Amino acid sequence: MSEALNRDYRVSEELGKGRFGVVFKAYLSNSGEPFAVKSIDKRLIADDSVDRQCLYNEAKVMQLLSPNPHVLRIFHVYEDECFLHIVLELCNGSDLYQRIAARTVFSEAEANVVMRPLMEAIAHCHHLGIVHRDIKPDNVLFNDWNELKLADFGSAEFIDDGQLISGVVGTPYYVAPEVVAGRHYDEKVDVWSAGVILYIMLAGFPPFYGDSAPEIFEAVLRANVRFPTRVFNSLSPEVKDLLRRMLSKDVIRRFSAEQVLGHPWMAGEGGGEIRPVAVEEARPVAVIS
């Protein structure tokens, strides 16, 4: 640990490991307030310019986005000869992946409670010219107060108005068809991924399925959104309309994040509450991928 980090924080137990480093729990020296410290071994990425750029971009992106109530907050960045240390907000609650796995399906009200802050976080990113590019349940965290926090900006990219970016980035079930096809794309790839999350919460299975990554990508490229009667018959026309607009293969017709927030289903009363999973099932905040 760097001398400056150890001066300001008391680094404690390990919370998780990844390819390039370790996440620790740490306490602010003068107050005892808990945080997470993501410590990245720069020697492991010295010969990989892409990985190195992604890791440095993550800190820059998070600094630009903070503070926002629905984005994981960054507090300090320390760097020494061998390590980059990023001090982050600590989320001891579970992530959305665990919450989806712990239940069969979500009611519309429960899904609404998740989607509103998630889309507010995505809209905040897009307003500042940032495309997340890896929206998935694993990167949607909850803190001790059950507040949603969008995390893991290692794949994020800056974008100007009207600009397109490239690169096959993301996770098979959640990646947009234009990414799979190798075309240039814009910030609406995040809306597609959020639409997949909404579908999974309501149905209990993904809209585009396969037994392998190539099969999943083929289904994503077809982009044939189905609403099986046995699952969707009891759901409102409004939520099905929203799903069609978020999962539109035609990017021009696909909703923006702001349009999603303005949709009648999003403006509904909701009334649901997402029950946190037990603490022993929860995963610590920032797992380095």
Descriptive report:
The chain is built from ten helices and nine strands. The protein is of the alpha+beta class. The protein folds into two domains: 3-88, Phosphorylase Kinase, domain 1 (2-Layer Sandwich); 96-281, Transferase(Phosphotransferase), domain 1 (Orthogonal Bundle). A five-stranded antiparallel sheet has the order 1-2-3-5-4. Strands 6-9 form a two-stranded antiparallel sheet. Strands 7-8 form a two-stranded antiparallel sheet. The chain starts with a helix and ends in a 27-residue tail after the last helix.
Brief overview:
By secondary structure, the chain is α+β, with helices and mostly antiparallel strands. It is 34% helix and 16% strand.
Order of helices and strands: HEEEHEEHHEEEEHHHHHH
Strand portion, in percent?
15-25%
Helical stretch count?
A: 10
Assign an overall shape. globular
The strand count comes to 9
* The CATH fourth-level homologous superfamily of the largest domain: Transferase(Phosphotransferase) domain 1
Q: What's the CATH class of the largest domain, please?
A: Mainly Alpha
Please give the radius of gyration in angstroms: 19 Å
Structural class per helix/strand content? alpha+beta
Residue-averaged pLDDT = 87
- Report helical residue fraction: 25-40%
Q: Kindly report the CATH topology of the largest domain.
A: Transferase(Phosphotransferase), domain 1
Spatial ordering of strands, largest sheet: 1-2-3-5-4
**Architecture of the largest domain, CATH level 2?**
Orthogonal Bundle
Main beta sheet: strand number and arrangement? Answer: 5 strands, antiparallel
How many separate domains? 2
The poorly predicted ranges are: 277-289
Instruction: Report how far apart the termini are.
Output: 20 Å
